[in-house]
Amino acid sequence: MATAPVTNPKAALKSTFLIVWVGQSISGLGNQLLGLALMWWVMKATGSGAAMAVVGIAGTIPQVVLGPLAGVFADRLDRRVLMLGADSLNGVLTLAVAFVAYRGLFSLPLIIIAMVAMSTVFTLHGPAYQASIPNLVGRDQLIRANSLMQTVNSAIGVVAPALGGVIIAVGGIGSAILLDAVSFFLAAASLLAVHFPRSQAPVAANQPSPWRDAATGFRFIFAHRLLGPMLGFFAVINLTLAPIGVALPLLITRVLKGGPELLGLFGSFESTGFLVASFALSAAPRLLRRSGLGVILGIIGIGMAIALVGASTRPALTLAAAAIVGMTIVVANIASQTIWQAEVPDEVRGRVFAARIALGGGIAPLGMAVAGPLADAVGPGRLMTGGGLACAAAGFLGLLVPGLVAYRSGDAAPAPAREMA
């Protein structure tokens, strides 16, 4: 598709990012509605927490298993086309799921199959999107771009549960799923309206096999002075925080003697913390220019706030701690994402980000698997307190990573991949 001459390339890149960001944000809202609809059906049909866990795990397995391969495609192929194909295909798949829901043919095995299929397609999308952002905005705008994305994600977290509840109550789960399909097609339409700058090297004729090429991402991470150690303590953090989702409802009901209202308020206060921190950093990205220190302080703050939630016996204190959890998660996430985007050269960015997802996210199911028995053995409050303190301790380990404390965003361009081998 032909485009008009660009008189200001930097402005054009930023406008491209905004168009893509809006489209992907709409799709993100749709995904939240889909997840809520499916979990609601599983809960009503089975009443089983184990069944809900199986559905959740089904959505994560493709990202861990196939993520590294998706990173290879993100580096070899046109990332915009890859995202366009993934959004379009997931729109078709979601339409099919909505049709089944309207016909009343839902079953637990069918939902698990649908989750695996859609997650597989989304796995192709994620590395391509994340790897494209530095090229769309430039290194000097990474903090602002990441803050904008986090702001919208936080707003979606506030709006989606209430909106989804109304949609499901009025139109049934099929309506919520249908809206997700529409959101995928809108995201695809936004990609049709733009072009991405392509700085990846041309694919050579003697390229290694995709699976062998996927190892490049892992080698880059482990050889990097910052990213390898960062991934290590983020894996520890994911392991310690994974049980929180299981322990929190038990804490609310058993310790605080609350109900779904208090659980909902906890989510609202946490999302409010998300929004406050995201908006502040998007308005004043200089606050997080020392991104390395932001990672460390954010992780320590997350751990201490969660430990406070676990130790609290008063709802007001629990809700205040929830807001702190939200704010510190945003600080750690934006600072970490900015470092990864700035430090990884474009030609390997897809493979590196995919390896990061596989290594960092793959540890979370292990934490979820032990959460139930641990909560029964030691109690939800002690589990959350212990997990929070372990998270904070992992954050302090960041002080031992050479160069992380002093790291400033935008100080230097990433070294070419061959220099990091």
Structure description:
With 421 residues, the chain is mostly helical. The chain has two domains: 10-198, Growth Hormone, Chain: A, CATH 1.20.1250; 210-421, Growth Hormone, Chain: A (Up-down Bundle), CATH 1.20.1250.20. The protein is 80% helix and 0% strand. It contains 16 helices and no strands. It has helices spanning 9-46, 49-76, 79-102, 108-137, 142-171, 173-192, 210-223, 227-241, 244-255, 260-283, 291-311, 315-343, 349-361, 364-378, 380-397, 417-420. Helix 1 runs antiparallel to helix 2 (49-76). The two termini are 38 Å apart. The relative contact order is 0.15. Residues 1-7, 9-13 and 415-421 have low confidence and may be disordered.
The secondary-structure class comes to mainly alpha
CATH architecture of the largest domain: Up-down Bundle
CATH superfamily of the largest domain: MFS general substrate transporter like domains
Number of strands: 0
Element order, helices and strands?
HHHHHHHHHHHHHHHH
* Fold-level CATH name of the largest domain: Growth Hormone, Chain: A
Which percent range describes the beta-strand content? under 5%
**Rounded Rg:** 21 Å
Please give the domain count: 2
How far is the N terminus from the C terminus?
Answer: 38 Å
Mean pLDDT rating: 83
Helix content: over 70%
- The top level CATH class name of the largest domain: Mainly Alpha
Number of helices: 16
Uncertain spans: 1-7, 9-13, 415-421
Major pleated sheet: none
What spatial form do the alpha-carbon principal axes imply? globular
Provide a brief overview of the structure.
The chain is mainly α. Helix content is 80%, strand content 0%. It is globular.
